[in-house]
Design goal:
This protein is an alpha+beta fold and 529 residues long. The chain is built from 13 helices and 26 strands. It has an eight-stranded mixed sheet with strand order 6-5-14-15-16-13-17-20, with helices on both faces. A six-stranded mixed sheet has the order 8-2-1-12-19-18.
Length: 529
């Protein structure tokens, strides 16, 4: 069968090719560039725990060497410390901050050892055609040629050629926020902590400036600028930098300036994310980034959602419901994120009387922390409670600490060969996971409990499921009682939980999670929804 064509070799496109390979699906990555990424220390990625874990599973080794996990978060207003929050051990989960060129290099290194991924450099896609069995694309460049693929995924950025060729609109807002940015090596007063400073008291401080640590003593500083204003000259940016460092340190400390830039944030959402056998992901499908939201995080969540669905279709044929669910789930989640950011902007940036209302400052601080740290509507991993893959209600369903459609907790589980691993280690392999909560199994040899109690009946039920599934056992799961059975999708979202072994209900839930039986192939139009 033909490989999947991935247009674009940014982090999202590279991650998608690796996610497909982990599920036995070959791909061709069309890279317009040279196959290398220019080092730009001021262009960085902030990854939440779920997206950092996804990249680690895909073999991106630069996360540990060149990424930095923050040890704390602090928010200041004028001269006052408004909030301080420990991160990591003993605190909230810590974001991972890494230069984007280092992230891409780590993904390319993982691809170099992967036989199922082929990266083609120097060729730009300029046309595409679809039929009911695949996609044919043409590239221009030194190796101009036609490529045939089972599916096409446009990961080719904000100016996506794939999106334009598919005739998909990309409405939204322009110049939502504008920032000046600098990367420098210096010693600041809060090693390893990220700072957001609102209305700094020194002259020319502007409305907001942030300092976020990277590895090797490097910091990224961002200054919020008027959305439309004069160009920021290099001289003006250096003056702003020196004044900011002096404001924090009492005087301007020694520093090494590594990189600078000015960037403008836009909020846009593609009207459709699927057109027949072609899909959009990453910046080709959405742009966001105001008030701390992270576009790359959402692009990697696109990868986790889409890869297992394409893999299912590539190996076994998938229903239209399963393929359509990518747009239904991910576009809805990103639309909610954009809506939350757009609703927050007038509150956080508008000023006026609302700023002086009782409790207003505390509420603003919470909104900003949500966006920057990955909490709440602005940053938390999405749930899909109204997914077309949600199973029908069954009386045997029971409530656990994770709502249906939400990401499951990364508990320790025992796999069929007797090893104990994290649940997250079993994600992304194209398998649905059936997890039995069985307190006490950890103190017994596996050969004893495998044939005891409900295990034989549950093992038989798992074997009979209409999806490929793996049976796991855990000592405990938040909110779950003994003998609770959880059904988890390959991307880690909970399908349903049952009070005991219910083979018929488990089968129905698994059938819903795969979108039902595949329908017969039909003619696919390039503009199909």
């Amino acid at each position: 069968m033909d490989p999947v064509i991935v247009a674009g070799a940014g982090p999202v496109g590279l991650a998608l090719s690796l996610a497909l390979a982990a599920q036995g699906v070959p791909s061709v990555v069309l890279d317009e560039g040279t196959g290398t990424d220019e080092p730009r220390p001021a262009r960085t990625a902030i990854l939440r725990p779920d997206t950092a874990a996804l990249l680690a599973r895909l073999g991106c080794t630069t996360l540990g060497d060149e990424g930095a996990r923050w040890v704390g978060w602090r928010l200041m207003r004028r001269k006052q410390l408004m909030r301080e929050l420990p991160l990591g051990e003993g605190g909230a989960p810590a974001p991972l901050h890494i230069p984007q060129h280092a992230l891409s290099r780590g993904l390319r290194s993982a691809i170099a050892g992967q036989e199922l991924v082929r990266v083609v450099t120097g060729d730009r896609l300029d046309s595409l055609e679809q039929d009911d069995r695949g996609v044919t694309v043409h590239t221009q460049g030194p190796g101009a040629t036609w490529w045939r693929g089972s599916h096409l995924v446009g990961c080719d950025g904000a100016r996506s050629t794939v999106r334009k060729l598919l005739g998909i609109r990309f409405p939204g807002r322009t110049a939502v926020e504008r920032h000046a940015v600098a990367a420098l090596r210096a010693e600041l007063p809060w090693p390893g902590e990220a700072l957001l400073h609102r209305q700094p008291p020194w002259s020319g401080g502007g409305e907001e400036v942030s300092a976020r640590p990277l590895a090797d003593g490097v910091w990224r500083l961002d200054w919020l600028l008027p959305s439309r204003g004069e160009l920021v000259t290099p001289e003006a940016l250096v003056t702003r930098l020196r004044d900011t460092l002096a404001g924090w340190c009492g005087e301007t400390p020694p520093y090494e300036l590594l990189d600078t830039g000015v960037y403008t944030l836009h909020h846009r959402l593609a009207s459709r994310w699927r057109a027949g056998r072609a899909f959009l992901a990453g910046d080709a499908a959405h742009l966001l980034g105001a008030v701390g939201t992270q576009g790359l995080d959402e692009g990697l969540r696109d990868v986790g959602n889409l890869a297992w669905k394409i893999a299912e279709d590539w190996h076994h044929g998938a229903s239209e419901t399963l393929l359509d669910s990518y747009q239904a789930e991910r576009r809805t989640a990103v639309a909610a994120r954009l809506r939350a950011a757009d609703q927050s902007l007038p509150i956080l940036r508008g000023g006026g009387l609302r700023t002086y209302m009782p409790g207003a400052t505390r509420g603003h601080d919470t909104l900003l922390a949500d966006g920057h740290l990955g909490h709440g509507p602005l940053g938390a991993p999405p749930a899909y409670p109204h997914s077309p893959l949600a199973p029908p209600y069954a009386e045997a369903q029971t409530a656990v600490g994770t709502p249906p459609g939400a990401p499951v907790e990364d508990v320790r589980v025992t796999v069929p060969d007797g090893r104990t691993v994290r649940l997250g280690d079993r994600l992304g392999l194209g398998l649905h996971l059936v997890v039995l909560v069985a307190p006490g199994t950890g103190v017994w040899e596996r050969r004893h409990w495998l044939t005891a109690g409900v295990m034989p009946r549950l093992a038989a039920a798992v074997t009979a499921l209409p999806v490929r599934a793996e049976l796991l056992v855990t000592e405990a799961y938040p909110g779950a009682s003994a003998h609770t059975v959880l059904l988890v999708r390959p991307d880690g979202h909970l399908v349903a939980a049952f009070g005991g072994v219910r083979p018929a209900d488990l089968y129905a839930a698994a059938d819903a999670a795969r979108g039902g039986s595949p329908s017969a192939p039909s003619e696919v139009r390039a503009d199909a929804p």
